[in-house]
Automatic annotation (TrEMBL):
A Pfam family: Hid1
Gene name of this polypeptide: LOC111160347
Protein name: Protein HID1 isoform X2
Protein origin, superkingdom: Eukaryota
InterPro entries the record matches: Hid-1/Ecm30
Region (Disordered) location: 297-316, 575-679
Residue ranges with Polar residues bias: 669-679
UniProt biased composition (Low complexity): 297-313
Gene Ontology terms: cellular component: Golgi medial cisterna; Golgi trans cisterna; membrane
PANTHER family named in the record: PROTEIN HID1
């Protein structure tokens, strides 16, 4: 039958369904088969021919017909899974039912009265009336649907290659089939790479789209503060009830990590044949991150010890979380598996950067946000993977793309979520000493970026990009400043030699953050000054020898430190500073920072196109909730500093420990006026001013400034290279205060970030699924859809 005819018949069936006020019997096959038996409609057709208004009308006016449609469609999928879908007709029925359910499910989720429908049992409709025992018949519809999808994803000649030579054999028996032999792609735990098959990829994609739609019930619930609410669809699908959990987890992970958008390594190859793999890879990445949506703060994570060889999963650990996907992810442990995953993710994240060398030479992928969520989950749930990433300079292949995305998105309101996840990943990495050490590797890759040209290390790149975000990003990024500077503090004790460009950028930030109008205009702003001083102290105390550029920059900007030491705290001075705030606030931008020319070939970071859709995000926890303080002891091990120990100011404790009390006090000391306007008081200023950790820098200036001035007078010098040479050979041994212990603020899992990740991830999935637009114009509750 021609496709025009089949569309017509399908549309006729839809109209009948919406106009029938009487319930249609479930046994009326002649009626129900019109929806899936004789039609060849694409998923786009289904979306066009089943308008939203009509689905809602059936839901309101003839609910029993909508219920029957759903359960008949599920029944067909179950039958297909049971029989193994040998004929073309059966395959077509499965695809049609799958598309129809993808269309209808969001409208069931958006109505609270319908939400329990799929979890209720349909009398007598358990297993396609095959007279199974009663328990099996009592399966909720959701479970039957999920198990059928899982079976169909490993269905020979439909979604996987058949292993049988002869078609005379009744093809592989679906029930005895070991799906671990049918994993979709080589990689973790599987060595054989099956022949690519376009049709199988398309069929997998349709089923994964339906699976993702099942999981999307989460979008229709408002963000709950206690993110302990598990998604029942994900919970069941990732449980031992699903016999394909392991091969499906492995198939999804390997499909993503093995994907090479270049097209077999030959530039421009993707132009020769359309790449049908990418949509499958995207869908796989989205399903994977949703199955891994699991609050690690509230659950026991498997420990890191014990390795066994021979299996991809580490069996020596305690059982770990119920969610098998999280469990499997946390137990991957073989070096070659880690290498495969890391190389794959780095290759895909670097893809948008390659575009800038040879424009259009490779297919530009769009799913970097999903990849960043996946990378985050890997590091968060599998500590061995995190240590592997940091063991070699391969971590820089993740760092550079993240810095590229951060710099590129800094002016774009629709990409605030991307900025956050990039910064969260760097915060997580910066809690490990090895990350700081790796940053000393020279940066030679020249990805065109809209930043000043510099010669130096990856640490310089990080500082220059962070400076650019802070001084020329948009207002909504201000909550990230604490995180950005915490990362700088965490890596500072390990930075062997900052370039002059990076040193000047750090001092420019200090200059901008220590103006009185900025310090007094919000309760938390002085934290930023504390972070920068702590970073300078770490470098001076632990890496003085290689850092003559920074020491020189500190000497040149010494007035900033003197002003901080003499910060006025009397009411008239505070009042005067705040008067300046009444005028439009000065942006932190170019003032006093010599902006060199940007790199060749780079484009300025652009704001979002007007009308761009974005999804709202929940607020992220403050830096004190996001991180936990640890002290590095002599042998390099970390000792957690519990809040109790921060109360006593033992001598030798870093000055930044003490502001904790001050910050707790500040609410008491400052008054918030009726208008909600922040009003700093003298007591408040003094409470933290006295704790500014300036001793080390003041001592350094006291010793070095007279010597530098003497050189300039003696040699009539204005040439900085001579001064730098003097500083390189200088030493402050015995002249500085006793080095303070190194303090690291490590990311700690918490419910706040778990909720943030959930809203961010679903927002990305909502916006990226436009063809067909699965969730558009449905009543989602997890976030708001806004236009820029």
């Amino acid at each position: 039958m021609g496709s025009a005819d089949s569309k017509l018949n399908f549309r006729k069936a839809v109209i009948q369904l919406t106009t029938k006020t009487q319930p249609v019997e479930a046994t009326d096959d002649a009626f129900w088969d019109q929806f899936w038996a004789d039609t060849a409609t694409s998923v786009q057709d289904v979306f066009a021919l089943v308008p939203a208004a009509e689905i809602r009308a059936v839901r309101e006016e003839s609910p029993s017909n909508l219920a029957t449609l759903c359960y008949k469609a599920v029944e067909k999928l179950v039958q297909g899974a049971e029989s193994g879908c040998h004929s073309e007709k059966e395959k077509q029925i499965v695809l049609n039912c799958s598309r129809l359910l993808t269309r209808v499910l969001p409208y069931i989720f958006e109505d609270p009265d319908w939400r329990g429908f799929f979890w209720s049992t349909v009398p007598g409709a358990g297993r396609a009336g095959q007279g199974d025992d009663d328990d099996e018949n009592a399966r909720p519809l959701a479970e039957s649907l999920l198990l059928a999808i899982a079976d169909l994803l490993f269905c020979p000649d439909f979604t996987v290659q058949s292993h049988r030579r002869s078609t005379v054999d009744s093809a592989e028996d679906v029930h005895s089939l070991d799906s671990c032999e049918y994993i979709w792609e080589a990689g973790v735990g599987f060595a054989h790479s099956p022949q690519p098959n376009y049709i199988h990829d398309l069929n997998r994609m349709e089923l994964l789209k339906l699976l993702l739609t099942c999981f999307s019930e989460a979008m229709y619930l408002p963000p709950a503060p206690d993110s302990g609410s598990t998604n029942p669809w994900v919970q069941f699908f990732c449980s031992t009830e699903n016999r394909h959990a392991l091969p499906l987890f492995t198939s999804l992970l390997n499909t993503v990590c093995a994907y090479d958008p270049v097209g077999y390594g030959i530039p421009y190859n993707h132009l020769l044949f359309s790449d049908y793999r990418e949509p499958l890879v995207e869908e796989a990445a989205q399903v994977l991150i949703v199955t891994l949506d699991h609050d690690s703060a509230t659950s026991t994570s498997p420990t890191v010890d014990g390795t066994t060889t021979g299996t991809a999963m580490d069996d020596t650990d305690p059982p770990g979380p119920e969610n098998l996907f999280v469990n499997y992810l946390s137990r991957i442990h073989r070096e070659e598996d880690f290498q495969f995953i890391l190389k794959g993710i780095a290759r895909l994240l670097s893809n948008p950067l390659l575009q800038t060398y040879l424009p259009n030479s490779t297919k530009k992928i769009q799913f970097h946000q999903e990849l960043l969520v996946l990378f985050w989950k890997l590091c968060d749930f599998n500590k061995k993977f995190l240590f592997f990433v940091l063991k070699s300079s391969d971590v820089l292949d993740i760092l550079v793309p993240i810095l590229y995305f951060l710099n590129d998105a800094r002016a774009d309101h629709s990409r605030v979520g991307l900025m956050h996840i990039g910064v969260f990943i760097l915060l997580l990495l910066s809690g490990e000493r090895n990350f700081g050490v790796r940053l000393n590797k020279p940066y030679s890759v020249r990805v065109p970026m809209d930043i000043p040209v510099f010669t130096g290390t990856h640490a310089d790149l990080l500082i220059v990009v962070f400076h650019k975000i802070i001084t020329s990003g948009h207002q909504r990024l201000q909550p990230l400043f604490d995180c950005l500077l915490t990362i700088v503090v965490n890596v500072s004790p390990y930075l062997k030699s900052l370039s002059m460009v990076a040193a000047n950028k750090l001092l420019h930030l200090l200059e901008a953050f220590s103006t009185t109008w900025f310090l007094f205009s919000a309760a938390q702003n002085h934290h930023l000054v504390f972070f920068l001083l702590e970073a300078f102290n770490n470098i001076i105390q632990y890496q003085f020898d290689g850092n003559s550029n920074l020491v020189y920059a500190i000497i040149r900007k010494r007035s900033v430190f003197h002003q901080l030491a003499n910060l006025p705290a009397d009411p008239p001075a505070i009042h005067k500073a705040l008067q300046r705030r009444r005028r439009p606030p000065e942006s932190l931008s170019r003032t006093g920072s010599q902006e060199g020319a940007s790199m060749e070939g780079s484009r300025p970071a652009a704001p979002a196109e007007p009308g761009t859709l974005k999804t709202s995000l929940v607020a992220t926890p403050g830096i004190d909730k996001l991180t936990e303080k640890s002290q590095v002891s002599e042998d390099g091990t970390l000792r957690s500093l519990e809040p109790m120990s921060q109360q006593s100011s033992a001598e030798g404790s870093p000055a930044t420990e003490e502001p904790d009390q001050a910050w707790r006090e500040q609410r008491r000391l400052s008054s918030t006026s009726a208008s909600g306007q922040w009003n700093p008081t003298s007591e408040w200023v003094l409470s933290w001013k006295s704790k500014l950790p300036l001793q080390t820098i003041m001592r350094l200036l006291q010793v070095l400034v007279p010597q530098v001035e003497k050189i300039c007078i003696d040699k009539g010098l204005t040439d900085e290279s001579e001064i730098l040479r003097f500083l390189q050979h200088g030493t402050l041994v015995g002249l500085l205060p006793v080095p303070h212990p190194i303090l690291i603020r490590k990311y700690q899992a918490n419910s706040g970030t778990a909720m943030w990740f959930r809203t961010y991830m679903w927002g990305v999935i909502y916006l990226r699924n436009v063809d067909p637009p699965v969730w558009y114009d449905t009543d989602v509750k997890l976030f708001e859809i806004q236009r820029v």
